[in-house]
Write a structure and sequence with these properties.
Strand content: under 5%
Number of helices: 3
Number of strands: 0
Structural class: mainly alpha
Helix content: 55-70%
């Protein structure tokens, strides 16, 4: 009746975890969609083709700048996460015995005056 039970570790390993979401990519895709949609809507409502084209160029420029900033932010966040995972080297990231500081060291048995 009682057979081997799968451990909770085995259950965790067998679960399929979804891949991390590319939020910056999602934002850029929606912005690119709006770069196409807004000029069409402007043309439908009677704006001149030159005005709609200017609006499309402006939106594309803003989208490009935002994409660059989002990617830069993601790289910075990944770098910070990698530094957090790195092992620490002592109390203040100093190594070796020569890096101890503080305290007053006198020369041998001579009295301090």
């Amino acid at each position: 009746m009682s057979g081997p039970r799968p451990s909770s570790e085995a259950n965790r390993v067998n679960r399929v975890t979804p891949p991390p979401r590319d939020t910056a990519g999602d934002v850029v895709r929606w912005a690119a969609f709006s770069c196409l949609l807004v000029p069409v809507v402007l043309l439908v409502y009677g704006t001149s083709p030159g005005g709609a084209a200017g609006t499309a160029l402006g939106l594309a420029a803003v989208t490009g700048a935002c994409r660059v900033l989002l990617r830069q932010s993601e790289r910075g966040a990944a770098r910070m996460a990698a530094e957090d995972r790195a092992p620490h080297r002592g109390r203040h990231h100093r190594t070796g015995t020569g890096s101890h500081r503080g305290g007053r060291h006198t020369g041998g048995d001579t009295p301090v005056s």
